[in-house]
Amino acid sequence: MKTSDPRSALWFSTAAPAPETPPLQGDRRADACIVGAGFTGLSAALHLAEAGVDAVVVEAEHPGFGASGRNHGQVVPAYSKHNPEDMVARFGKERGEALNRWVQDSAALVFELIRRHGIDCDAVQNGWLMPAHNAARLAVARAKHDQWAARGAAVDFLDKDKTAELTGSPHYIGAWMHRGGGNIQPLGYARGLARAAQKAGAAIHAASPALAVERSGGRWRVKTPGGTVTADKVVLATNAYGGDLWPALAKSIVPVRLFQSATLPLSDNIARSILPQGHSISDSRRVLWSFRKDRFGRLVSGAAPVFTHDIRGSVTRLVTGHIQSVFPQVDEVKLEHIWDGRIAVTTDRLPHLHELAEGLYAGLGYSGRGIAMATGMGKVLAARVRGTPLAELPVPAFPVRPLPLHALSIPIARLTIAWQRWQDRG
Ligand SMILES: Cc1cc2nc3c(=O)[nH]c(=O)nc-3n(C[C@H](O)[C@H](O)[C@H](O)COP(=O)(O)OP(=O)(O)OC[C@H]3O[C@@H](n4cnc5c(N)ncnc54)[C@H](O)[C@@H]3O)c2cc1C
Questions:
Q1: Of 131, 159, 178, 281, which one is least surrounded by beta carbons within 10 A?
Q2: CA 70 – ligand 1 centroid, Å
């Protein structure tokens, strides 16, 4: 099976069952039509349906088919690249701090939805760590800690011993930790959001790719092979899987393929020695490494980009070497699952909210940090659909800017990643 087949992902074999989501048959009216059933689209549908809006989701494959069902499962209330003060410098104090609060609250939103809707997805909210392997990267982690701490976030700065205690690894010299973060079984979360949205009154149609989104008589018509949804408002929530549906949107992001892997369940004593309290970690390297365990004691590693034809061989070599340097107690690494998914990277590494035309919105580009932010973006999109003015939303809206020479963006991204990996050595 190819690593891009969603069934390769560990989560596909351990998720709670999917709800019934029959394909769209025939033509129907709706207040809002959402294209794409990942975290962005499902959260938008849930928040709209809870507010009494008649919402219909059309999904090309099945809920969680895209990045939402294949990711590492770390719920992180922080930017991947930026610090809070960068936002103030860019957007001014009021808008910058509103965005910081939104990012900071996004993980709480995920865990609150999981609790409120009883979503079966192995949720653990006991903290997320960014450990550092050298002094320069520790300074990066320190700045993040200090800036979030100044905003009242539930963060700690850990010395080498405490980091070793929480990670089970002698590899790191310190870490910053956000106690509001944690981890989930991502496909289970996507399916649970879908079920909650249906319960609240939304319709979800799988195997119903939007073939065109067109303006017609003051409304939008979303055409699928089996029927059409005519809606006042449309949300495009297709992230890096949107193809040519709205070409300018596809050209505004760089799709990057990330690989994940999971070992066979570790023996009990080894599993207990790694991340013993169930934390998850994304280290502070420029090309970061992430680790977590699943509920059966598998060690899940990500998110490695590799650029060879021998994908399984390359991922196995890369992951085996890294696991053994970080967790020397694992003497033999046996990978059971290797899979990949696509993230949407923006050039400014910020999530993008767009108003593409009157009544047509999009939210995408979480640059690899989208469990919390995509869930939060769905809520923001729902508020916009319901008429909240753009100026009152916590996320600034950007015009869509297709990248010049977009075709070159993937080779450029590969070169950048290779350069950053070289800088990370040592
Ligand atoms: C390997 C990997 C590891 C990651 N790890 C983490 C992590 O640990 N923590 C974190 O916060 N983030 C992580 N991310 C990022 C996170 O998964 C994404 O940012 C998030 O899932 C994006 O959600 P989304 O709903 O916007 O997009 P997606 O989940 O990609 O959903 C888009 C959906 O749109 C559908 N679609 C596309 N075109 C059409 C069409 N024409 N008609 C109908 N449907 C269509 C697709 O089938 C798909 O289901 C990771 C991503 C990957 C790939």
A1: 159
A2: 8
Cβ of residue 370 lying under 6 Å from some atom of ligand 1? yes
The pLDDT tens digits of the residues spanning 92-107 come to 999 999 999 999 999 9
For ligand 1, mutation pick of 178, 183, 229, 238 (most atoms within 8 Å of CB): 238
The answer to whether the CB of 369 is under 6 A from ligand 1 is yes
DSSP element (H, E) containing 315: helix 311-326
Tens of pLDDT, residues 188-213: 999 999 999 999 999 999 999 999 99
Helix/strand/coil for 214: strand
Q: What is the pLDDT of residues 268-310, one digit of tens each?
A: 999 999 999 999 999 876 667 899 999 999 999 986 666 677 8
pLDDT for res 304: 63
CB of residue 68 inside a 6 A radius of ligand 1: yes
Residue with tokens 């892997």: 261
> 163 CB less than 6 Å from ligand 1?
no
Helix, strand and coil content of the chain, in percent to the nearest 5, comes to 40, 25, 40
In contact, 144 and 83? CB cutoff 8 Å? yes
The CB density around residue 271, as the number of other CB atoms within 10 Å, is 19
Closest atom of ligand 1 relative to the 208 alpha carbon: 43
Q: How confident is the model at residue 80 (pLDDT cuts 50, 70, 90)?
A: confident
Q: What is the value of pTM for the model shown?
A: 0.96
